[in-house]
Every structure is written in C-alpha cells, then in structure tokens.
C-alpha cells in the first residue's frame, strides 16, 4: 500500500500529472492577466477562455523540428532540459501540499527541507547558464553570462527573506513553519517586508520583466535559449512554468501560512494562495520595463539586501518580545 | 575577451534588415560598424522612367511611416520647377496631414521605445491610441498608410465641416492620453533608468556629424526646417521648436512627446483658420529644364529631395536623402562605450527607417569578408559562370 501511495504522490498528485496541468493553467493565468493589464484579450480560442492554449503550445513545440547546433556538446545540450525539469519537479515534492498532519505533510518532509527547496530552486539557474554555454552561440553565451551575473544579485536577498520567517517560527521544516503561522496568524504581518523582497527576487529568479535580461528578445535574440527548439524548448518552457508554481508555493507556505485542511480544502488553499502570489508577479511584469544587468546587481545590493537584513532584525526583535 | 556580435541583418530588435557589427568586451561596446544594402529597391532609378504625376505615388512608397513627408517634399520641388502656386486651402490641408503624420509617427516611436526597453505595456497602450490618429487620417484621405492626398499644385480631397468637428473631438482624447504618456514615460523608475544617460551625443558632435530631427534637438540645438526655412503654411502657424539638453535617449523621448503637443496645437490652429477656396490648381505635363532642392521636416528629421528636369514629362534625376541616412554617423558615435543592452534603444532612438536610406548594394565574399562594388552586368556574368555546366536542381513539384 505504501508503494502505491508513493507512486500516486510521484505520478498523480502533487507529482508529474498535477504539476503539468497546474503549471499550464498558471501559464494561462499569467498570460491572461498580463494581456488584460495591457488592454489585450490574451488567449481566447483554444478551449474555454483559451485555457488549453499553453497545452496546445506545448504539444505544438513537441512536434517541431529539433535542431542541435553542430559545434555544441550534443550530450550535455540534450540532457540539460530533462535535468532541469527533474530538479523542479523534485522541488515540488517538498512543498507541503498533501497536508493531512504534521507527520505526513508532503511526500518527503524533514527538518531542513526549506534549505533543500531553496537549493533546488537555485539549480535551474545553473541549468540555464550551462544551456547557454553549451549552445556555442554568441547570443547564448552572453545570455549565460547574464544569468550568472544576476544570480549574484538576487540570491542572497532571497535566502535572507525566506529564512527570516523560519527564524521566527524556530524551525527549518516547511510544514512546521506553516503550522506555526496558522497558530499565530497575528505574526504573519511581521514578515510583510520579507514577502515583498521575496516576490521581487522570485521575479528575478524566474527571469521575468524587469529581470528578463538573460533572454532579452530585443538585445540578444533568444538569449540562453537561442539554439533550443522543438522538444527541448518545450521542456524548458514547462520547466519555467513549473518553477513558477514551486516558487509561488514556497512563498505561500512560508509567508501565507501554508495549505491546511486535508486533501480537498488543502488543494483549494494551494490554488488560491499560489494564484494570489502569481497575481503580484504578473502585476510587476506588466508595470515595469527591463533593466540592465548592472542595474540588477546594484539594485539588489543597494536596496534588497539591506532591507532583507532589516527584516531579519525585525524578526529577531519580535522573537525576543514574544518569548 | 573581445568578440564580435552581429546584430542583424535579421534580429528581433530590427524591423528592417541592416547589419550592425558590434565589438564587445564583456557587456561593453568598444567598436561598431554599420553595413547597409540589404534592402535596396532601386527607387531612384525607377523614378527616371515614370512621369511627374506617377512619381508622387512612387515617392509615397519610399517609406511607410513618413509617406506624406516624401510626397510633400517631392511635390514641393516639382511645383517650384513648374512655377506653380498652390492655393491656400490646399496648403492648409497638406500641412494638416503632415502634422497628423508626425503625431502618428511619434506615438509609434514611443511604443517602439517601450518595446525595445522591454516595457511592453507602454507599447500596447501607445499603439492603441495611435489608432485614433490613423482613423482621423482615414477620414481625411481614405487611407491609413499611403494617404495619396498630394498632387502637383495642391491636394486631392477637401475637408467638410463634419470632418473638422470629428478631428477636433478626437484631438481632445489624444491630448489627454499624451499627457498620461508624458507622466508615465518620464517618471516610471525602471523605464527612466533604462533611458537616462544612454547614447550620449554632445551638441558639438551632433552638429559635426550632421544629425537631424529629434536626435539633434535632444542635444540642445534648435534646428527645424519648419522654422529655419518655412515651407507650406508654417510661416503663419505659431509653434515652438522643442529641444532637450540631456543629450541622451530620454531627451529624444522628451523632445518627441513635446512635439506631440506642438502638433496638436498646430492641427487645432489649421482647422480653426481653414481658408475657403479651391484646393488645387492645374499642373502642366512637362517641366522646363532646371534643377531644384526641396527640404521638409519629416517626423524623423530633415528630408531632402533633389530633382532635375530636362523639359520632358519625366524627371532626369530624383535624389532622396532620407533623415535616417543623416543620423547613421551619429549612431556609431552614440553606440561606442555603451552596453549591449543599450544597442536596440540607441538605434531605435534615431527612429531608423532603413529601406528609406538604402542607396547601394555591396557584394561581400562570405568566406574572406572582402567587399567589392560591381556593376549589374558583371554580377550576372558571375552567376552564369558559377552555375555553368552544373546540374539543375529538381524543380519543386506541386504536391496535389
């Protein structure tokens, strides 16, 4: 029975199938919001309200010709999308969605899993860099270099911002952090500043405007993905969408009190809270213009990092007050 | 590590083909080289085979955005050659269309600048409101892009009261929207961060490199053909030449937004003071042997047509100097020591219209990079020599 359960976790919910469907839905939601902010219609034709458009895009890309550049490292070039997808889907297993009790909040849950999630969310950045580098295209190389340069900017503020609620909750376990804030809802506003910082950093991590620098279309064509086409590009796109779900899930767990209420209510909680986070991500995307890569680093270290330290300070003070 | 990045001839930042070879060190541009000739259409040669009237419609097709600029410039020259005096009402309508064209061109540019900076919301909004101007132009001329309103000796369509009222009403909406874009474009932090200080062009350089239009005026030099050498009815119309002193892309955006408001005022003045009378005079079929230079302030800058007649009904030579060509030298100067990220912005800031500025084709050896200029006949012989005796490729068959 345990084996069957684990298989269900891995393949159906919250594993492969659910994540695939939900990340395509999230892409639709993001596209629709972005379009409405811009006074456009967004997807309308495929399925009801264009809901099936991301899935149609995925299968269309799967059917397209798949080209590997002559001078590229063939093995690495082909393996990277699969690795990236695997990493992001693994990260999803750690998010406490299957929330019966603290004993079994997700497929695997242990003290310190918040660090593992953050680590797993850092890896796609390296996948993007390697993808750009192994393409041996000038635009991809520039894109790859930009991916790494940006990483030095947003990674530290993100870690600080996400870890400060953990400090207040006195735990490194996602499920326990969420449970702590459910018991003490008054303490959620303490982390408001951290939530805003984490939102901005996640936007940078997902490489969306104003941080879509590594694949800035008007500057370096496709950036890291210039040489990718067909199946590999489809998988990369799915990976980006799934990464958005995982990142939104992480923020909702840490800052918004997780997803209580068993399988059904927990699922509804999960959807509402992640869509809430993604709404802000879409809003930032619609209202800003792309900044330069040097401006990202300056912005992160001038404003985000000090504010994140301030958040940590507030957290420690509040912790001292309540204990 | 220095390496070369080819921006173009095919690149998402460019709407038309042009080759920009950029030598970079990391993200910083050390050198830039411009290659033209991907979009040469031989318009000047074609003009020599068409009559004076036919050439109006040819000149219109030099450019899609400033189609009225090229016809007006050409028609003014021909009118000088034929010693014609177009009636006042005709000139008023001609100027009206010219200013509406400036409004649509500048709104288009604002959107393009937004898109190049990755600010797609700005792009979508400005282009939505550009439709209002396009609709006005359609009501006046019947067309959205190639208006076909100019003719030698005046214009081809008259305005009635209803149209005047419609234009004045739409103008109010445009004013309000432009006000919003002025605030947004100059205060949105991430947008301003991208534009400010980018593509510096000192006033001395701008003059020395013969920059024209908003590029020149953003460097603080108030030079405008409409003021310096008035044509049509600009002598009677009150307006100011807009400048900025920041010498960067932000300045170029500000100049264009300021010009939008000047254009609205001009349009309002023209409509309220529209004289009565005929709109055109009859033009002769031939022009006496002579030559003339016609200048016109297009939305992108000074447009020059040189026309030579030989007494027949066709021009002997039509030479077009589009504003983009004059701005290329300044662009190279602006690109140096900038970031790769700024290339599309700096290049878009001159509002390039590439096919307007194409005058020649150079043949480059793909392997050695050697460039030569060869006549058409030699090119034909060369292609025959290469393909001589070779097996013909199978002709594609229609699958059905």
Explain what this protein looks like in three dimensions:
The complex is a heterodimer of chains A (about 325) and B (about 400). Chain A is mostly helical and about 325 residues long. Chain A has one domain. Chain A has helices at about 1-10, 15-35, 55-65, 75-95, 115-135, 140-170, 175-185, 190-205, 215-220, 230-255, 260-285, 295-320. In chain A, helix 2 (about 15-35) runs parallel beside helix 11 and helix 3 packs antiparallel against helix 10 (about 230-255). Chain A is globular and about 60 Å long. Chain B contains 14 helices and ten strands. In chain B, the strands form four sheets. In chain B, strands 1-2-3 form a three-stranded antiparallel β-sheet, covered by helices on one side. A three-stranded antiparallel β-sheet of chain B has the order 6-7-8. Chain B has a two-stranded antiparallel ribbon with strand order 4-5. In chain B, helix 5 runs antiparallel to helix 6. Chain B is about 45% helix and about 15% strand. In chain B, strand 4 (about 150) and strand 5 (about 155) form a beta hairpin. The relative contact order of chain B is 0.17. Chain B is an alpha+beta fold and about 400 residues long. At the A-B interface, helix 6, helix 9 and helix 12 of A face strand 1, helix 4, helix 5 and helix 7 of B.
Ends distance of chain B? 55 Å
Number of domains of chain A: 1
Taking all residues together, what is the mean pLDDT of chain B?
87
What is the strand content of chain B? 5-15%
Biggest interface between protein chains, with counts per chain?
A-B, 29 and 32 residues
Approximate shape of chain B: globular
Gist of the model:
Chain A is mostly helical and 323 residues long.
Defining key terms:
heterodimer; A: 323 residues; mainly alpha; 71% helix; 0% strand; B: 400 residues; alpha+beta; Cytochrome-c3 Hydrogenase, chain B; 3-stranded antiparallel beta sheet; 14 helices; 46% helix; globular
